[in-house]
Each structure stands twice: as structure tokens, then as C-alpha cells.
Design goal:
The complex is a heterotetramer, with 2 copies of chain A (573 residues) and 2 copies of chain B (299 residues).
Chain A (H helix, E strand, L loop, with lengths): L7 E9 L4 H15 L2 E7 L8 E9 L12 E4 L2 H7 L8 E5 L13 E5 L1 H7 L6 H13 L3 H13 L3 H19 L18 E5 H12 L3 E4 L6 H10 L6 E4 L3 H13 L4 E5 L1 H17 L3 E7 L16 H6 L8 E4 L3 H18 L2 E7 H5 L1 E5 L44 E3 L13 H14 L3 H4 L4 E3 L6 E4 L4 H14 L4 E5 L2 E3 L3 H9 L4 E5 L5 H9 L5 E4 L8 H12 L1
Parallel strand pairs in A: 1-4, 4-5, 5-6, 8-9, 8-10, 10-11, 11-13, 12-13, 17-18, 17-20, 20-21
Antiparallel strand pairs in A: 1-3, 2-3, 7-14, 12-19, 16-18
Chain B lengths: L35 H15 L6 E5 L14 E4 L5 H11 L4 E7 H7 L4 H6 L5 E6 L34 H8 L3 E6 L3 H13 L4 E6 L11 H7 E3 L9 H13 L3 E8 L5 H11 L8 H6 L4
The complex binds thiamine diphosphate (TPP) (2 copies), iron/sulfur cluster (2 copies) and magnesium ion (2 copies).
The site of one iron/sulfur cluster has 11 residues of chain B, from loops.
């Protein structure tokens, strides 16, 4: 973990919820991004509503970052609990910055660099006890070369709403922290790199990015019911959708949400909902109706630890079975999953495009880690996104809502269209929409509805293959695990391993041929995922000839690159 | 009863006869003598009287014999899932407030499986019209107790008689804050039509309970029983007094009567109006520059 | 289809709903079964509530019957619609018995035997127009040797409730029908065989048989919401459960049903619900809770045509995806499926036993065809069923509800047990039930919950293998398709084909090794199922090394033996 | 208020102090100042006053801050799913009528996602006690509007203010046919305890609404606001008059007051009693010979 080769730095800030841990993390992140560095953050929330241990990890560097990293280089402990929670990771070479004097005295293991900073005490001296976190931030900025000008800017911007006094008070605490740290001799090698150049970026969490993607895609109608860790999608959309003239409603439950979404879709609008596992379970029946009645809709599932109420604030990738198979009676859907904040924007747009084009439900899977992770992404130009509108009836001839067509896609007619009156129904129906229970019709209609989906594979970018040539081991990953694998592969290749990665984002219908091609170039396959049953591995086995080895964890946390590296080495040993 | 209302400007209007609203393409479905025919007649008449443009009318239902109604109406329409017509209709209407939206469905559909949605249609004052086709039984599944079934009803899953106090849709809707609440015997298509018409013209959530016999599976509440129990409200009834309306209902129940006519009507901003006001307040419009929103995420 | 080798006869009765089609079918079935014949019936219902085309097919024979057969040998048409619906199946050698004079005059294709019977007219002459069906039944009894003594008995028993006059009137119509038929010369070879001996049997529909199985298993509590084609399970249970002192409630929806069931289960009782696809979709979330909180429960899903509202009265086997995968966050369940009426009784008992033993949800899949099919089964002796009770805490030491044990099964404590107080929760929890979100605990608990299920395979009878040696083609079938395959294989073997069958009833966890062993004995594999996506084939591919060919139909009707025979011949050609 | 009732014989009784009902093993969860503490205090006192045997008590909840309550109670207990405590408790109770069953949960849990179950608990008269911990907000998900939130509340998903008429749990429950309906400020543990005690002793469905502040996410309805709005009912209030109870609620609402105390109480057979009667009627018992049932299926 030592040294010069490392071009990024991981700072973990831990303390009691309410002590400003989150603010410090946010400020550092913003400042680094503003200065032109890459950032990737990760948070965990206390189980308690207020108080409890809160953790914010900022990874910042000069190269592209794909994940939260292996533990940390620098720990900043606001209190004894933060120290205790993390002391196991204080390996030789790591650094701890901690509040002292305080209620705890850390045991500094040999080789660990330690910087005691009187955070609480200084804040009190400044008559500004809430600014303890600013003292810490000042100290960190000196110790690890965090772009201080940017820090001051973001701090000023953030606090200016609260008045000049607040800005001044916090700036003063920041400067005091810098003085305190400067007085200490630096013993460790950790420092944030110098940014190559300023870039046009934004910094967003996964949940907000999905909201933004939806706005870019032309969202008209949003309905949701609050649920951790998806609520922020609704919060973001609630703030901005009215500006675009759209409609948001908090429904009485998830069944009502998806029902409202389908109503809006029938009315001709782009509509979506967002939820987490329990809500998605409740939507199962209505999603079948969306498939049967061929109503476009986008459903975001920010996965959390399950089953059942499970671990609501924790990370897991365990809703894939439900997403693909969660409906009675051969109900199809398109399932996408996001790797990164960039995906949260881009694939949300893709989700809307596919929903409109194929007139069916599109499920977009995110997860608890991405939900609150923030990353910088290039400033997205809305004009660069190609938007798809549902095929609408051209008014010619007799309108048949469910007309058999070559590709199975039948033009829709918005209410108000003369001659386009029709019924959307969950009953099996003939081309006009009237109930029909004959064998021939049911078989033809099922064929139509599933035939449509055949086109999807060509409408989504081919699955990314990371690496070339023949590999001793190929890794297949999905969701935020992809970012972890990317880095692990870089490290492994640096050590001479012949490894490749395969990163599907379209999970249903599964691009089977692409899997086969990838499999053909690898001697063995490994599929790491954060769930118990090895859910994607199941689908890969069922839909392709491949037999990837499953590597599953389900401890509520994402993989780290190190875990993947070790596993690969073990396999190839 | 209150004076005739002005049609809402939002209705796209045309001049059509009741039969023009009837979709003849759909093969018949209901049993002979089913009260649901009366509901349909009343609805078609109301549509004609208002002159709703069928192209701007959306008829929404759940699942049940009653929920087949949209198939017989010339309009855009959705035959959704058991209990979900209300929220689906909410979505249609909020997404396109220019559409006239009518929900129709059964007592089981609305107050058993769909019962959780009902309060929110009313208290949010969604500007749609909900027609409950209340036959005190599950028709489509061939005769089980519904939540409005009489306590003593022997039915498929209650072979020894029911055990539950029936609920009163009208009292529920008064409690839920529906802004227009009326009731009639389905066989009285004239009153049905009048209530539906006024309900549709009312800006806000209107609820009309139509008592509709099921000769196939409900031997207790026949057309005759319904007709005899239905009593037109006193002309003196104050349709703006919520407590009074509740009392009328409570009293009628004790006496085994069914009060009919318009029970309650009040004006309160409908949700779409409030949402439109919000959009205006934030200066929202379709072409609002997305970059202004994206800029907020600059570090 | 000709001849003497056929030791069973298929009579299809068609007419307008309300004309007594169902009664005639029932009487013939009862009479045959009473006389000692094997029976297998099949019905389709009109889409309309009242009226519309109704069809009842009775297959009766001297050998064991496994399915409804290929179309019919004898058609009895009450009206023109019945004739029209079936005329395509009037192949040379078949027989039609029809009402004449009437509103229709059938076109008798060459080689078809025709017996006009003045059903309506005779009934009118007898001043008993409702007895039209009895006239028809009398004619049928003469023409095809239906045990008339038994017919008279069942008729008398059935109508005796309505008074002697009714009995007499119907008997008279029956005799008149016999006379009319006797006057006609018999031209066809069809006749019901002579029963070998009287046997102790009962005749039940699938839905009733499930209800009976539950009573045998010791059902205490039942809650359901009506839905086609599952309602009759509730109707049966409603009639008989109070006799056993149990409790039945019709809930406000399926979510309430399964919730009530879990409450009753926690209270220490054996509890179940029954539903069809839409209801099962709605139960997804609560079934996850059952798995997490380790609450025994039995959920019967009588599958119907989907997706969505679909074809509510039609047959399909398309809820397997939902049954196995329909829950968020790695939620396990046991899934069984029934082949026959016998299974409906026996496997319902097994379902309860597994639920009790493994403290988890057990889903029992039936289907629209079995729901209303009646078959004779040997009189079941309740004492012959082994019943399992949940493992209850022995009162020793400190009680921990979710104690880690070798097999993952932790003893339960009914409310009222001193010292056994505990919480059942959908949150991840430690051994005591308190919330715990640590990685180690979540992984250990998931492992515990899934480890439990490993034992299931040994608790269920090994999957039946039909045939021996090496086969050119092995057929894997599930649900009521099994019975069709059984007969197809008999016919194929008679023609010299080397074919075998494999009939899993436990579908999750899948007995993978048994599949492998079967696969190893077959050169090729075929998996016929009545759904669009080939759902069991998917699981077989995912969970085993086998790659069975899918043969799917989804026209709302079961396979016929002939379809399977033809398909096999095509493959082996 | 009505005269103290006789404890039901079905309670397994013991002699324990309120603190004996407190489960100390559970780490604290609620924020400082949360009104839910008051609910817990009231419940523990009521349990002690009745002397319920904790081994025969089942505490059931859904999901929400409020729904954590069972963890703090010494009893058998179930922490179920959001909105489902009612039907789960129904199952517990009907399967084992000898158990005392108490449901506790939030306004969102009970009247948003769980709202569809509420009418049926009441009209079926399930003999359980339901304590609504009504803080007019979603606490656990960090501050969104609940169906009892004030119309003007700015919250996470309503950054520009809400748009919906809040519902009144008490009025709902009167309409639904609850046979015991009471209300109190959670901070008034004395009244809370009294209502819970009497509610538990009442044979039938008892509903108690406890107004419970959420200092973390509801700035409008603070403890002070609740305390000031809560008015004890007139001593003259007739607890058997449904229309009168409804009128009290409607009037209080107009005046911005919250009526507290016992609002309504009536006796009606509880569902378990009716089911027991049915079993008796058909001569049912555990050892009823199955063969008698099987024989009915002989051909
Ligand atoms: C989720 C779900 N559960 C159950 C059903 C079965 N079902 C269809 S209609 C119906 C009740 C019909 O009664 P009602 O709504 O009163 O309408 P009616 O037929 O009496 O007009 C039921 C239980 C279903 N379609 N979907
Ligand atoms: C199916 C489902 N949807 C959403 C949630 C998220 N959720 C948990 S608690 C809650 C609302 C809590 O509010 P309330 O019931 O009023 O209880 P409080 O926290 O205010 O005491 C929500 C929406 C969930 N757990 N399950
Ligand atoms: S079953 Fe009853 S409700 Fe249904 S169509 Fe027939 S009469 Fe009408
Ligand atoms: S968030 Fe509100 S309701 Fe939840 S514990 Fe805190 S104060 Fe109580
Ligand atoms: Mg009905
Ligand atoms: Mg609340």
C-alpha cells in the first residue's frame, strides 16, 4: 500500500452522525473535483435515525477512479467509536488523524502515522463548537495537500446562505486547523496528486444522477413511495421536475406508484417510478400488466440488503432474480444495470428510450453503494443524448392497437387522437384489444410481445470487453462491482496476469452471443457479485453455454479491488 | 338537489346521442337482468348530455363483471388490475388534465382489494369520477361475499353465512373527503345519469354509488329489494354539511334504507390545479433549460 | 384411433352453459368410478359468467388413466355451437350423438358415426324440458355401455335432496333416452370396458383434493381471496375446516391473506393460502418475510394463462419463474408441483411437512387443467400419512429463536411458552432476533437459511424415472404434463421407440444430481411444458449440466399424448 | 368516560410492574425527544395495570420508527412489513384467541401503505388493540409527508409544500366500525395508559390514536403544538352515539383542535367469537373424523 506509484489517496472520515462527518467529506470531494481531480466517495449510514457511527470515504486522484478502493490510506477519527470501528485497518503505512484531547486515546500500531489534532478543543476555543469538523478539514488539507483554494470556495458557497458570520466562523476554524497541522511534522508519504487540468465536471450521487438522466430523457410524470435507499431519486426529481412542467406525486404505496405510472404512460407521457426491493416485489403484478398491455415505463430499483426488510441501508446486488423473473405467467421485461454515476445518467436515458421503443417495462438496477456514492463526471450536454419517442399511429386506415407487425411493435395512439380509441388491457386480447382466449391468438400475441424484445440487444452498446487476446481468467461483473473489477484487472495485469473483464449492462434479454464470444477467449471464468445465490451466474448458465465460477459475498458492503485480486491469484495459483 | 352546474371548459365537447357512446363491437358479457346494464345506460346518457368528446374521454376499470364496462363505451379506455383502477386513473388524469376520466368498478374491486387507494383519491381531490357498481357480491368469481354483502349472506366461501359488518361506500367517501358524493339505484338510469353528469362536471373527486343487482349470485339484494330500499333524499338536505350527510347515512342504515341523490358537494382545489399552480410558481415549462439544473451539480 | 386395442373411451359433451352439460359429465364420471372404472375428466368454462359454450370431457377405462386424452371418441352435442366448436375433430371413426330435431343439422363427414337423438323434443314431451340432458345421458348409456345401474344410483342420490318427483322425472327421461338409442342400430365400435372389480375410491377435482390434503396434514388456519381457478380450494376448506375446529377467513386481498397466514404460523398453527398467478405476484414481498423470519407456510398457486389477467379460465404452467425467483434479495422457498389428483392430496401433505420442518414458505403449484379435472383415487386413509410438526424448543437453557445449528434449523417456541419469548422479524437479525447488520452476521444467517434447504431433497421421494436402460430420447415433464407424457411414452414404446420419462415434483431446490443421472441415460432430452419461455428448461440449464430441448405451447390447453408422440417421432426421425 | 371495565377472562394474568414489561436488551433506537417514548411508557403502564402475562402477549408492528416499539416490550412479538401489521395480527389472534394482541405503528404504516387493511380490522371486529403512533410524518425514511401531515408541510419529496388534505385516523375508524376509539397526546402517558388498558380489555377491535411528536422531521407538529391542541372531551359526550362522535371530530377539525379521551365504544360480537360459534354449530372439534369428510367424495 506504500508509495510513490499510488496516484490516488483514500481518506476516511468517521464520527458520530451530526458531527459534520458528511459535510467534511462533501467539501473535500467538491474541492478536489473543482480542482480537477477525480473523486469517488462512499458512505455508510448509522442504523439509528440520528447519531450513531457515520462514515464518509473520499478517494481522490489524478487518474480515472472506478470504485471506493480498498479500505483507506488516511483515517480521520472524530471520536472513539470511529477509531474503534476502523482500528483493524490501521496497517503499517496508514495514517490516522484524530481528535485529541478527547474521550479516547488511540493505540497507534507500529508503522502507523499519527497526527493528533485538538479538534473539539479548538472549536470550543473559537467559540464555535459546531466547527470541530472544519478544524479537522483544515488539518487534513495541510497534511494531504487538499486543494485549499477550492476548499475555501466551496465552503464559502455552501455557507453563504447562512450569512457572512457563519462563513467567517467556518473559514477561521479551517485556518486554525491548517495552523495546527502545519506545526506537526509530516511523517507519512500520503498526498493528493496535482490535478492535470481543470475540467468541466459535475459531481453527483447515483440517486441524483438517475433523476438527472430522467430529466434529460424527457420525463413527464414521476410517482414514488419513499424507501431507503431510493428516496433521493424522488427528492431530486421533486425539486426539478416542476421546472420542466412535469408532475410528481408521492403515492400511498408502491402499487399505487406503478399504477399511476402506467396511467400516465397510457396518456402518452414518459413516466417512471423508483423504489428498492420491497417496493419492487409489490409491483410484480402491475409490471405484468405493463408487459401485457404494452405500456412503456421505467422502474428504478436501488437494491439494498435482503431478503425482506433485510439490511435497508446496506449494499447488495440481490434483486436480479426478481427483476427478471418477478411476475406470473411469462411476463417479460428489459433489465439494465448501472456501473457508475455516468451510467446512472446515460442508462436512465437508455431505459426511457427502450421503454418507448419496445412499449414494455424497463427496470434499471442500481444499488445501495452507488445510491450515495458521488463521483465526478464530465458535464453532460443534454443535446448530445438521442431521445426516442414511442412509435405513434400515423392516422392511416383502421387503427388496431395490438396490430401484428413484423417486429412486433404496434403503433400507439395518445388519448385525443381521432380514430385512435382503443383499450389497454391485462386480459389476453386480439389486435383490436378485445378479449380473446383462443389458442392461436394467445400464442401469436405472446410471440409478438417477446419477439419485440429481440431487437433490444442491438439498441444497447455491445458489452464492454476489458482486455484483449486470450485470458487465463475472464471476469464477468455487473453493477457497481464492475468498477471494482476494472481496477483489480489493472493491478493484476501490472503483475503480469493474463486476465480480461466483461461488463454487461443489459441483463435481460441477455446478450448471449456476446457472452459466448467472451467466454471463448478465456480459459476460465469468474463471476463476482454481491448476493448469496450467484444470481447473474444463474442466468449466464441458463442462457449461455458458459459455466462461470461464482464468487459471492453478501456482507452488506461492496467488493474491494484487493478482494478480487486475491481471489484471482488464488484461482490462478 | 343543487342547481345545474356549468360544464367545465376542459371538456372537449361534441354533440352525440347516448347510443353514439356505445361500443357495439364488444360482444355482450353480462348476464340477463344484471344491474350493470343500468349503470351503462346512465353513463351513456350522462356522456351525451355533457357532450364529452369520446376522443378525450378515458374510461378506466379494474377487474370484475362491473369492470368490463369500458369495453362497452366509445372512448379511450383501460381495463387494469383488480383494485387498481383508482391509481391508474390518477396517473392518466394528472399526466393529461385535459382528459375526462371516469372509473367504474365493483364493490370488491373498490373496497376490498382496492380499498387502500380510495382515501387518497378523495383527499387528494383527484378530478375524476368514480362510479361504484355495487352489487353486494363478487360476481365475476361466482358469488363470494364482498365487503358490502349483508352479514347473513351464505356464499361460496361462507357456506354457513357471513360474519362481517358490511361497509357503506357512501359513508367512507364522506369521511375520505370526496368533494362530490351521490348514490342511486342502477335501475334508475335517470338519476344515475344526472349524478354522473354533475359528478363529471364537478371539479374534483366525485363518487357515485350505484346499487346494481346481481341476479346470478346475490339472492338477497335483488333489483326489487334495492328499488324499495332506495329513498330520495329530503329536498331540505344541505349538501354542504358534512356531519349532516354522515348522519343521514348512519340513520338510513339503522332504518334499513338507502339514501339516494346528491349527498354532499363542496369545492376544494383539485390536485391538478395545485400542481399547475406549483409549476407556475417555479416558472416551469417544457423548455426550461436543463443546463440550469445541471449547473447546480457543479462542484 | 380405431378398434379393439383401445381400453378406454373418451366422451365429450358440449352445450350451452346451464343446459346441464356439467351434470351429465359428473353423473357419467361418478357412475363409471362407482362401477370400478378409472376416470379422468376435463372441463372448459365459458368466458361469460352465464351461458356460453361449456364442455365436459369424460375419459373412462379399465386401465389406469393419466390424462384427458387426445380429443374424443364420442361427441355429444347439445346444440349447434357445440357441434361447430368440435366439428374439426370429427375424424373418421369418431362418433357424434346430437340433438335432433334442433336448431342445427350437422354435416356428418364420411366415416363418422352419427346418432341423432331428439333430446329437446323428448324432454318437452315428458313435460320436463330441463331433463334434456338426462335424455342424452340415457342414450349415451345404451350406446356406449355406461354402467346404468350406477348411473341410476348417482342420479337418485343427487336429486333425492330435491324430492322424489324430481328423481322420478329424471329417471324417466333417462329411460326414454335409453329406449330411443336402443332403437338405433349401433354402427361404431366404441364401448366402455367392463370394470375389473369394484374398488374403494373417491372422485375429486384437483382443487378439492388440495383442500382434503390440507385437512389431512392438520390444517388449522386458512385465509384466501377468491380468484379463478383457485377459489374452489377455499370453498372446499370453508365447508370442512370448521368441522375440524379450524379457522377460515376470506381476506380483503392476497397480501392480507398471506399476512394472516404468517400471523397464524407464528402463533404455532399450520396455515395456508391458495391463489393464482396475480395473487402470488402480490404475495412476493410477504413471502420474503416468511423466509427471513423462518415462518412455516403453505401457498397453493393454481396457475392460469398469463401474463397479467391473461386467460383466467385457461390452463398454463407459467408461474414457475415467479414461484422460484419471485422475491427481492435472495429469498428462498421450496417449490413443489402436482401431476394428478393423487398428488393434490399427497403433496399437499408433503408441503405442510416441509414447511413445518424447514420453517419456510412452501409453494405448491397446480394448474387450471387439474383444478377442475376429476379423477378417481384410492380411498385415502388419513392414518397412513406421516405428519411432521415443527421442532419446538425443549425449554432448556436460554432460548434463541435463530440459534445457529448444524442443519440450520432452530427450534421454535409457540406464544405462551415460558422463556420462549422472541421476535419474528423481516430485518436481518442475530440469533436472538435483535437487528444486526454486520457483514459476518448477515453472511452467517443467509448461510443458515439456505443451508436448511439442503435437506429437502432427501425428504421428498426421489424423482420418478419412467423406463429403464438407455433411451434415444428422455422426456422431462412437470405438473399435469407428466400424465400426458406417461401415456405418450407407453404408445411410443409399443411402437418400439426407446424413450424414458423423468417426472420431478420438487422443483426448488432442484434435485440436480437426479437430473444428471437421468440425463446420463438418455441420448437426447426433450422438455415439454405449457408456457412460452420454457421455464423449467431454464432452471434445468442453470442448475445442471443438461441442455434439454424445449417444447413449449401456450394456447390455454394442456398437451395431448398425441402431440408428444408426434414431437418425439419428429425428433427421432 | 365510561366506567372501568372488567378485565377479560381470556387474559393470562400476572403481577408485574411497568418496568418488568420493558425489554432492556434492545439498544435504544429513537431520537431524543421522540414522542414514541411516551407511547411506550403508556403501553407498559397499561400492561402492568391489566397484569397481562407477557408470555401470552403478542406485540405486532409494521415498519417505521414507531414499528420498532415491540423490540422494547417483554412479550412475544413480530416486526413485520410496512403496512401489514394489521392482517398479521389478525392471523395471530384468530389462530390463538387466547393471546392478547397489540399492534403499534406509524401514521404512514397504518394509513398510507396499510390503509387498505384498516377497514377490515374494524368491520370484522378483530379483538386486538391497535395503537397508532401518529407523528404526522414519515420518520424512518427521514421526513416525507404522511397522510396525516399538514397540508402546508414542506418535506423531502414535497420541497415546495404539500398539496393534500390530511386524513383523520379517528374519523376513519369511527366510519370503519371500530368498536372502541380513543385518542390522546403521547406525552400524556396517563391518558394513553388508560385508553390502552381499556382498549385491551374491550372485546373487539380497539383503536387508539396517540399524537406523538417527531422532533427530527416534523417542525410543524411539535410536542407543544400537540399538547396545546389536545382537548379532553366533554364529560357529557355520549360514547355510544356514532354520529355524535363523528360530529365531535368534524367540529374539532374545523377549530384546529384534537379531541382526546374515549370517543366511541360499542359492543358487537368479535370475529373470533363468531367463528367459535360456527365451530360449535357444525359440531366441530380437533378430532372430528376425517373419514366422514372423505366419504363425501365417494362416487
Ligand atoms: C389480484 C387478484 N385477485 C383476485 C382476482 C379475482 N377476482 C376477479 S374479479 C373479483 C371480484 C369481483 O367482484 P366485484 O369487484 O364486486 O365486481 P362484480 O363482479 O361483482 O361486478 C375477484 C376476486 C383478480 N382478478 N386479481
Ligand atoms: C414496501 C415498503 N415501502 C417503503 C418502505 C420504506 N418505509 C419504511 S418506514 C416508512 C414510513 C414510516 O413512517 P410511519 O409509518 O409514519 O412511521 P414513523 O417512522 O413516522 O414512526 C417507509 C415509507 C418499506 N419499508 N417498505
Ligand atoms: S354474475 Fe352478477 S354481476 Fe356478473 S354479469 Fe352476471 S348478474 Fe352481473
Ligand atoms: S425520526 Fe422522528 S419518529 Fe423517528 S425516532 Fe426520530 S424523532 Fe422519533
Ligand atoms: Mg360486486
Ligand atoms: Mg409517522
Amino acid at each position: 500500500m506504500q508509495g510513490i506509484t499510488k496516484n490516488d489517496l483514500i481518506i476516511r472520515i468517521g464520527g458520530e452522525g451530526g458531527e459534520g462527518v458528511i459535510s467534511v467529506g462533501d467539501f473535500i470531494t467538491q474541492a478536489c473535483a473543482r480542482a480537477g481531480l477525480d473523486v469517488y466517495t462512499f458512505k455508510t449510514f448509522p442504523a439509528e435515525i440520528k447519531g450513531g457511527y457515520a462514515m464518509y470515504q473520499v478517494r481522490a486522484g489524478t487518474e480515472r477512479l472506478y470504485n471506493q478502493g480498498d479500505t483507506f490510506d488516511v483515517l480521520c477519527a472524530f471520536n472513539g467509536e470511529a477509531y474503534n470501528m476502523n482500528k483493524a485497518f490501521l496497517k503499517p503505512g496508514t495514517t490516522i488523524v484524530y481528535d485529541s484531547p478527547s474521550d479516547f486515546t488511540p493505540d497507534i500500531p507500529p508503522g502507523v502515522h499519527a497526527y493528533p489534532i485538538p479538534m473539539t478543543q479548538t472549536a470550543k476555543e473559537l467559540n464555535n463548537p459546531r466547527a470541530k469538523n472544519m478544524v479537522a478539514m483544515g488539518a487534513l488539507s495541510v497534511l494531504f495537500n487538499i486543494p485549499v483554494e477550492s476548499l475555501r470556495e466551496v465552503l464559502t458557497t455552501k455557507f453563504s446562505r447562512k450569512g457572512e458570520d457563519v462563513v467567517k466562523g467556518n473559514l477561521a476554524a479551517l485556518e486554525r486547523g491548517r495552523e495546527l497541522a502545519s506545526a506537526l511534522g509530516k511523517t507519512d508519504p500520503w498526498t493528493i496528486g496535482t490535478p492535470k487540468s481543470k475540467r468541466e465536471v459535475i459531481v453527483m450521487s447515483g440517486n441524483n444522477a438517475i433523476g438527472l438522466g430522467a430529466l434529460i430523457a424527457g420525463l413527464d410524470f414521476f410517482s414514488a413511495y419513499p424507501i431507503t435507499p431510493a428516496t433521493e431519486v424522488a427528492i431530486y426529481v421533486a425539486k426539478h421536475l416542476p421546472k420542466r412542467g412535469g408532475t410528481l406525486i408521492q403515492a400511498e404505496d408502491e402499487i399505487a406508484s406503478i399504477s399511476q405510472v402506467l396511467g400516465a404512460s397510457y396518456a402518452g407521457k414518459k413516466a417512471m417510478t423508483s423504489t428498492s426491493g420491497p417496493g419492487l416485489s409489490l409491483m410484480s403484478e402491475m409490471l405484468g400488466m405493463a408487459f401485457m398491455a404494452e405500456l412503456p415505463c421505467v422502474v428504478v430499483d436501488v437494491q439494498r440488503g435482503g431478503p425482506s426488510t433485510g439490511l435497508p441501508t446496506k449494499h447488495e446486488q440481490s434483486d436480479l432474480f426478481l427483476a427478471i423473473h418477478g411476475g406470473h405467467g411469462d411476463a417479460g421485461r428489459i433489465v439494465l444495470s448501472v456501473e457508475s454515476i455516468q451510467d446512472c445518467i446515460d442508462l436512465t436515458v437508455v431505459a426511457f428510450n427502450l421503454a418507448e421503443k419496445y412499449q414494455c417495462p424497463v427496470l434499471l438496477l442500481s444499488d445501495g453503494s452507488l445510491a450515495f456514492s458521488t463521483q465526478n463526471v464530465p458535464y453532460p450536454n443534454p443535446d448530445n443524448y438521442k431521445l426516442v419517442e414511442r412509435k405513434r399511429w400515423n392516422g392511416e386506415g383502421e387503427y388496431q392497437r395490438y396490430k401484428f407487425t413484423g417486429d412486433g411493435i404496434s403503433p400507439m395512439a395518445d388519448p385525443g387522437t381521432p380514430g385512435g380509441r382503443h383499450i389497454a388491457t391485462g386480459l389476453e386480447h386480439d389486435e383490436t384489444g378485445l378479449p380473446s382466449y383462443t389458442s392461436a391468438n394467445h400464442e401469436a400475441m405472446q410471440d409478438k410481445r417477446f419477439r419485440k424484445l429481440k431487437g433490444v440487444i442491438n439498441d444497447v452498446a455491445p458489452t464492454e470487453v476489458d482486455g484483449t487476446g486470450t485470458a487465463d481468467l475472464g471476469l464477468i461483473a455487473w453493477g457497481s462491482t464492475i468498477g471494482v473489477v476494472r481496477e483489480a484487472l489493472q493491478r493484476l495485469r501490472a503483475e503480469g496476469y493474463k486476465v480480461k473483464g466483461f461488463y454487461p449492462k443489459l441483463l435481460n434479454p441477455l446478450p448471449a452471443q456476446q457472452f459466448e464470444d467472451f467466454g471463448a477467449s478465456c480459459k476460465r471464468l469468474l463471476l463476482p457479485e454481491v448476493n448469496f445465490q450467484g444470481q447473474l451466474a444463474h442466468f449466464v448458465r441458463a442462457e449461455t453455454s458458459l459455466r462461470p465460477e461464482s464468487y459471492t459475498i453478501c456482507g452488506g458492503m461492496p467488493f474491494t479491488p484487493e478482494m478480487i485480486v486475491n481471489k484471482v491469484k488464488e484461482i490462478l495459483a | 338537489m343543487n342547481a345545474p352546474l356549468q360544464p367545465h371548459p376542459h371538456f372537449h365537447q361534441v354533440d352525440l346521442k347516448p347510443k353514439d357512446y356505445k361500443n357495439e363491437a364488444t360482444p355482450s358479457f353480462w348476464c340477463a337482468g344484471c344491474g350493470h346494464y343500468g349503470v351503462l345506460t346512465g353513463l351513456l346518457r350522462a356522456l351525451s348530455e355533457i357532450g364529452v368528446d369520446p376522443n378525450f374521454l378515458v374510461s378506466v376499470s379494474g377487474i370484475g363483471c362491473s369492470s368490463r364496462l369500458p369495453y362497452f363505451v366509445n372512448s379511450y379506455k383501460m381495463h387494469t388490475l383488480h383494485g387498481r383502477a383508482g391509481p391508474v386513473a390518477t396517473g392518466v388524469h394528472l399526466a393529461r388534465p385535459d382528459l375526462a376520466v371516469v372509473v367504474s368498478g365493483g364493490d370488491g374491486d373498490g373496497f376490498s382489494i382496492g380499498g387502500g387507494h380510495m382515501p387518497h383519491l378523495a383527499r387528494k381531490n383527484i378530478n375524476i369520477t368514480y362510479i361504484l357498481m355495487d352489487n353486494h357480491v363478487y360476481g365475476l368469481t361466482k358469488g363470494q361475499c364482498s365487503p358490502t354483502s349483508r352479514e347473513e349472506m351464505k356464499a361460496a366461501v361462507t357456506p354457513y353465512g357471513g360474519m362481517e359488518e358490511p361497509l357503506d361506500p357512501i359513508l367512507y367517501m364522506l369521511t375520505y373527503g370526496a368533494t362530490y358524493v351521490g348514490q342511486a339505484f342502477a335501475g334508475n338510469a335517470k338519476l344515475g345519469a344526472q349524478l354522473i353528469k354533475e359528478g363529471m362536471e364537478h371539479k374534483g373527486f366525485s363518487f357515485i354509488n350505484l346499487l346494481s343487482q346481481c341476479p346470478s349470485f346475490n339472492e338477497l339484494d335483488t333489483a326489487v329489494v334495492f328499488r324499495n330500499a332506495c329513498n330520495q333524499l329530503d329536498t331540505g338536505h344541505d349538501i354542504t354539511d358534512l356531519s349532516a350527510a354522515m348522519q343521514v347515512v348512519n340513520k338510513a342504515k339503522q332504518e334499513g334504507r338507502i339514501p339516494t341523490g346528491l349527498l354532499y358537494k363542496v369545492d376544494r382545489p383539485a390536485l391538478d390545479e395545485r400542481m399547475a399552480a406549483l409549476v407556475e410558481r417555479v416558472g416551469g415549462h417544457k423548455d426550461y433549460d436543463l443546463k440550469k439544473i445541471i449547473d447546480l451539480a457543479r462542484p
